[in-house]
């Protein structure tokens, strides 16, 4: 059986706040988090893996709305794999464009630094 984690433990492991974990559950990003006999949330290792993936989506600029759409598709099961793949491919494309723009900006900054070095 999966190890179970209280919400405070899950927050510490994921780096999210307890408030954010509750919010993610409230809006449907976290579906089916178990509860113990006292009604406290019990996160499984698979819940934590899903949260880590959500964090990666968020940190790479996916909107909460798009994350919700992805999560809803995931909840529908295997029949939505193609739609989920298409969503991730579109997101990947956006990230790659952002990375190219960042690389170009970084090169411009490096050139400016090199120029300033010649003036010292």
What brief labels describe this structure?
single chain, 120 residues, mainly alpha, Multidrug-efflux Transporter Regulator, Chain: A, Domain 2, three-stranded antiparallel β-sheet, 3 strands, 7% strand, repressor, DNA-bd_dom_put_sf, MerR-type_HTH_dom, MerR family transcriptional regulator
Order of helices and strands: EHHEEHHH
Structural class call reads mainly alpha
The fold-level CATH name is Multidrug-efflux Transporter Regulator, Chain: A, Domain 2
Label the overall shape.
Answer: elongated
Report on the architecture of this protein.
The protein is 70% helix and 7% strand. The chain has 120 residues and is mainly alpha-helical. Strands 1-3-2 form a 3-stranded antiparallel beta sheet. The mean pLDDT is 96.
Describe the structure in brief:
By secondary structure, the chain is mostly helical.
Topology:
Elements lengths: L3 E2 L1 H8 L3 H9 L7 E2 L5 E4 H15 L4 H13 L4 H39 L1
Antiparallel strand pairs: 1-3, 2-3
């Amino acid at each position: 059986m999966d190890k179970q984690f209280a919400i405070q433990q899950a927050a510490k492991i994921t780096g999210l706040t307890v408030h954010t974990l509750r919010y993610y559950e409230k809006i449907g990003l976290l579906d089916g988090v178990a509860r113990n006999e006292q009604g406290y949330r019990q996160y499984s290792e698979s819940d934590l893996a899903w949260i880590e993936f959500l964090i990666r989506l968020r940190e790479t600029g996916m909107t909460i709305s798009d994350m919700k759409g992805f999560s809803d598709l995931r909840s529908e099961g295997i029949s939505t794999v193609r739609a989920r793949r298409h969503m991730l491919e579109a997101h990947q494309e956006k990230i790659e464009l952002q990375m190219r723009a960042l690389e170009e900006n970084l090169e411009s900054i490096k050139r400016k630094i090199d120029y300033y070095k010649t003036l010292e």
